[in-house]
User: What shape does this take?
Amino acid sequence: MSATLRARRSRPPRAGWQVPATQAALVVGFFALWEAGAASGLLDPLTWSRPSVIVTELADLIGTPETVNDLAATLTTLAAGFLIGASVGVGIGIAVARLRRVQAVVSTYLVALQSVPLLVFYPVLLTIFGLNRGPTVIVVAAVTMVPVALNTTAGLGAIPRGLQRLATSLMLSRSAAYRKVFLPAAIPLIFPGLRVGFLAALVTTIGMEFIVASAGLGYRVGQSYHTFAVDRMYANIVVVCVLAILVNLVLTRIERSLRRDVTT
Amino acid sequence: MTTSTEAVLEFEDTALTYRTASGTIEALVGVTAAVPKGRFVSVIGPSGCGKSTLLDIAGGLLAPTSGSARLNGEEIRGPRRTTAMVFQEAALLPWRTVRDNIAFGLEAAGVPKKRRRDRADSLINLVGLDGFGDKHPGDLSGGMRQRVAIARALAVDPEILLMDEPFGALDQQTRMMMGTELTKIWERIRCSVLFVTHDIPEAIALSDEVWVMSQRPARIKERVVIDIPRPRGADLPLDPRFQELNGVIWKLLRDEANRQLVGSAD
Assistant: This one.
């Protein structure tokens, strides 16, 4: 038995055709059933639309100034919120890891904040900043910040003692020690934080657009729904999904290239 | 043979006391000894006796509570760029290549790129890692990683090399090979070394002099001069003088271990 175990471990499953074929079949089957259900009248067209209609709607949608505008609005909000949140998160993470007193005070709040749906604070922010992009960016930054800060602290807390002694014995300045040794060494833990933060940022961006925006993909989905344009709504949902998948792919690529050399 | 040379590292009545919640702990009391220039000195003693404390004082990572520690006649007040340390963990930067790891100490010291690259390449050769310059630490075995750490330490051309059980994390076979390898490297460059270990044969094989530490609070119980001529080959353990010295040091350490047992029975 141990022999078979060893054989399995040493030889990773070969990339055959079965897995992708099954996956493709599942997708095709799903859309075929959906289409058939809609065609037979089993699925209410006002709730479910139908794939063939959504595809034509999508074709109309793509490239229109409105869609380009929505896409740009969503992406800039997301990017601004995520970048601000990630930078602040890394900063707080460093401060918490470095200063024991700060750690004692702040870390409890961070953990608690993790379970608070920060989205609910939007009315407060609206009254402070008004009905513009500001509140959305702030909420997105806040939801990004929390996991990034927690993971940065964890990553810096797990720096091997040898690396700490190395930095001291080489007389690295504090900033050089962080730039050249501690932060790169913490990347394997910081990156999952960025990942979680990004997903939260994406969900929050779309969610906030439902509520307060006048442009953006989330806004467009909501607006189509309110005007009974079900087919348009589905087409916009497809755009959101594709965007999410694409950005996730890019993140995975970046993570892999960063991590390749970091893990020993 | 050892007395005429000038001292690089001197401890004079060096003592260190820790203050903890439950009182003070005397880690080191009145250590007086010196590492002569160009000599390999090992510190051996019961585990937890303060060997590493002595090394940390030499490296400027800890300050003695009384007495003094001097490097080339100058009081040690903190870490210096001319003191190189090798730890039990290789402490390499896994995202850097072997070459860039070796050059890291030089980079920290602000040596220009071209020069540190050349220096790193010559050290790669010295420690026998030719062809591995562009590999990452993750691609190397434990013994090879420790060679990189040694090369990084030697790259800065240190006044003294401080090694804290550098082979402690390796398996016995690799450990013996690394000992032989380090002897060979050292016999080529002859820098001053203070080497902490708890392995008697390793200490004898490498050293010109072995300091046997006592139980805590630690002092130097005895300094044993290792008068086995160099170069020392791989068959050193068969040398009768080696076995004799092995016995001497073992007895010294055994007495300490007995004292510890009696002490803890009180």
Q: What stands out?
A: Confidence is low (pLDDT under 50) at residues 1-5 of chain A. The radius of gyration of chain A is 24 Å. The longest helix of chain A spans residues 174-212.
